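Dear Dr. H.,

I hope your travels went smoothly. While you were away I took the liberty of generating a structure for the chain from your last submission, since the lab meeting agenda had it listed for discussion. I wanted you to have the full record in hand beforehand rather than looking at slides cold. The sequence, exactly as received, is reproduced here:
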Amino acid sequence: MLLIGSTVRRSGASVVGGAGDLSVGRAADPRGRGIGRPADDTAAPAVYLWLVHARLLRLRNYRVDLVKLDLVVAGVLAVVSELEAWLGSFPAHERLVITVVGPLTAATVAVRRRYPATAGIVAALVGDTVAIASKPPSIVSYGVAWICSLYALTVWTPPKRFALGVAALALPTFVADAISGGPHGGVQFTVIALAVMVLVRRVVGDRERRAQLAERERDVAAREAVVEERARIARELHDAIAHNVSMMVVQAGAERRVLEEDRRSTREVLETIERIGRGALTEMRRLVGMLRSEAGDPLAPQPGLDDLPTLVAQVSEAGLPVELQVEGDRRELPVGIELSAYRIVQEALTNALKHAGDAHATVHVRYGPDSLELEIVDDGAGVQVPVASGGHGLAGMRERVALYGGRLDAGRRPGGGFGVRVLLPVR
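The corresponding predicted structure, in token form, is as follows:
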């Protein structure tokens, strides 16, 4: 069947067009994997804990790599300071000072991530002591190590420890200047250093606060999106289930009315079915009524998989050519699964239309013996869109998939484009 800008192909065994091989219970993945992670972190505590452990492990490995980098930098600075001391034209006493102070200051760089306050205070005290007793070493390695350690003190410490570090840097110089005049230019240099430290701490602190605020706003928006999606799912399922329950109640009442008077037990059973069904409908309306928006929801039949060709045609007309491929024999599925499958495809195509750019998309639907598999992929390079226009489509998909204990895999494909793969068990 040819649609506007789209093609629908049905095959009982294979799929034409390279949508991938879909085995029962697994969705195709261009990376050679099946659907590998649950749709929601509430699906299985073991999986959730494993994901958290993996994230913490990556974070820990990242920090370990940075610590190793500091060790390497400290070693290089210590070696360079020795080379500068012995290869430079310094007096004997100054060469001795550089030989000791250079590696000592470099050593503070090695521990600055684990003990930033200690590293900064030690570097400040060493610099003050040398400047007061002799003069600051005029070598590059010493200056680099001193700045690195004071940066750690400035950025990575709480306010009280930062104040202690400022005191360790400023007091010796100010006291020495008050007593004996101090090192030449020492007060001016210290004042400039303190001003730079305060400025850097202010700038970095503001940046971190903005980042934390943005992260909290994203979390709140994501939670709100999940709540809204759950409310929408509840409303849609209420409409679908209420129709079926109403039909059961009507048929039970009709059958009761035409039964003969002598079949009393059967009449009582049908009366019970009517009473329980009507009570269930009343409770459902009362509970779901709280989820209704003030403007009211549009009164329209809930879509299903039979409406996918129309959806594909609409998206194709909007500018994203879409090909629909169906594998397996079409059969009746629970109304909730049909509705969720349609909404997942709709959301995935909407995201592709907004973010994929100049691309083509493929929707692959496979009816398995005990599952329904969906794959929506595009070959777009992706385009940048304003954050305000972005939604939380993946969060909604996860909610719908988690409702039926399914699995979702969504992400960038190695060959380019974006893919969404869903497995919905059909019991």
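Two observations you may find useful: DSSP finds ten helices and seven strands in the chain. The first helix runs from residue 45 to 87.

With kind regards,
E. W.
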